[in-house]
Each structure stands twice: as C-alpha cells, then as structure tokens.
Amino acid sequence: MIEDTFPFWLKALPNLQVLILSSNKLYGSISPPDQGPLGFSELRIFEISDNKFTGSLPPMYFVNWKAASLTMNEDGGLYMVQEEFDHGMLHTTTIETIDLRYKGLSMEQERILNSYATIDFSGNRIEGQIPESIGLLKELIALHFLDNVFTGHIPLSLANLKKLESLDLSSNQLSWTIPSGLGTLSFLAYINVSHNQLKGEIPQGTQIMGQPKSSFEGNAGLCGLPLQETCF
User: Fold this and answer.
1) How are beta strands 142-144 and 166-168 bridged, if at all?
2) Which residues are listed as membrane-spanning (predicted)?
C-alpha cells in the first residue's frame, strides 16, 4: 500500500495510457501546482478511487487530453475539431487486461482502444465544482465521482459525452437541477445521483426513466419518475 502524494512525476512517461492508484493511502491535491491541465496527454484509464485525495479541480483540468475531439474556447464554450487519421486508417492500440469498476460493478476489461475509457475518483475528499472541461472527453464511457465533496451544479457539458454508459455522482453535495441533456445520452445504461442536494424535475429521457428510484433518492428537492414524488 502506497502512502504518498500524487505522482506528478509520471508525466515524464509520455506514452502512459493507464494509471490505476486505487485503494492506497495517497493524499493531497491531484491538481498541478500551476492549476492548469492535468498533463497526461495519452492517458486512457485514470483510477484513483479509495484514497485520501483532497482539494479541487481547476477549470482546465481535462483540457489537452489527446482522445478529446472537442476544444474549449476562451469563454468556456465547446466546439468540434476534426479528427486526423493516418492515410485514411484509424489505428488502435491494445494493452493488457486490467480490472475496472464499471456500471456499479467490478469488471475486467481485456482490451482498451486508443481512446478514453474510464475516470474513477470515487472515495476521496475532492471538493469544489466539477469542471465543465470534463465534457471535452468525448470517448469517455464511464465517469465515477461518487463519495466525494463536490459542490455546485452538474456540468451541462456532460451532454457532450455521447458514448457515456456509466455515470455515478452519488454521495456528494451537488445542487441545482439534473441537466436535461443527460436524458439524450442514448448509451447511458447506469446513472446514480443519489444523496446530493439536487432539486427540480428528473429529465424524462428513455435511459433515465429506466433507472431504479434508488439512483435518485436522498435529494429532498427532486421530483418526477422514477421517484414517487410528483412535480405538480
């Protein structure tokens, strides 16, 4: 078991694609000293769950990750950038088997394509707003921030994550409403925003309506299906 601060020195490994530091005694901030982007441009899997990390994530934290084809304007808006292919071919990379937490369960992922797959910051004490720059990672399929101290609203930019299949923001201090754009994510098979401070009507997209009510419980101001509380 490792007891230390976040190993920013790993940025010296330019081809690092998988970083799994879960279930250790790591502590301190995971934000760079200059409060800029994280800086692991090739990273595909980023798992630091069940540690003692603290601090907040700067607005540009998820900028410049190679798999993103969305770019952030200076005003914080997002726009598309055309992807480049080598001689008309899309090349992929396969790496060895790893264990991941996915859709609320542990799973073994045998192949990782050359794109973003999962981010898991669960079980820490990370606080502040979830950066809108998370919406740049268009290849993301699983995002787990449960059991932290995140505050503010759920980023509207999550609606840009068209391949997202698993989203867990439960057991934080998030407020305001659930973005209606989450109801348009056709691959979203698992969502959990329970035990926050959310309010308003739950978006009625097909994927969200198929979730159990336990995924929304613990938010006194939420209403609509699958909860029993009506909005009228």
Assistant:
1) parallel
2) none
Output phi, psi for 79, to 5 deg: -145, 160
Cα distance between residue 147 and residue 162, in whole Å: 24
**To the nearest whole number, what is the mean pLDDT of the chain?**
82
Q: Which DSSP helix (H) or strand (E) runs through 167? A: strand 166-168
Q: Report how many helices (DSSP H) and strands (DSSP E) the chain contains, helices first.
A: 1, 17
Buried b (16+ CB within 10 A) or exposed e, 127-155: bebbbbbbbbbbbbbbbbbbbbebbeebb
Q: Is the separation of the CB atoms in 2 and 21 below 8 Å?
A: yes
Q: Name residue 96's amino acid.
A: E
In angstroms, rounded to a whole number, what is the distance separating the alpha carbons of residues 127 and 56?
5
Domain annotation for the chain: domains and CATH numbers: 8-223 (3.80.10.10)
Q: Measuring CA to CA, which residue among 221, 189, 185 is closest to residue 202?
A: 221
Q: Could you check whether the bond before residue 212 is cis, i.e. omega within 30 degrees of 0?
A: no
| Rounded Cα distance, 211 and 179, in Å | 16
CA distance 81 to 172: 33
Tokens of 148: 């932290």
Q: pLDDT for 144-159, tens place per residue?
A: 999 999 999 999 999 9
Residue-wise pLDDT tens digits, 182-232 = 999 999 999 999 999 999 999 988 788 889 999 999 999 999 989 987 887
Partners of 46 in the β-ladder: 19, 119
CA distance linking residue 49 with residue 69, whole number of Å: 26
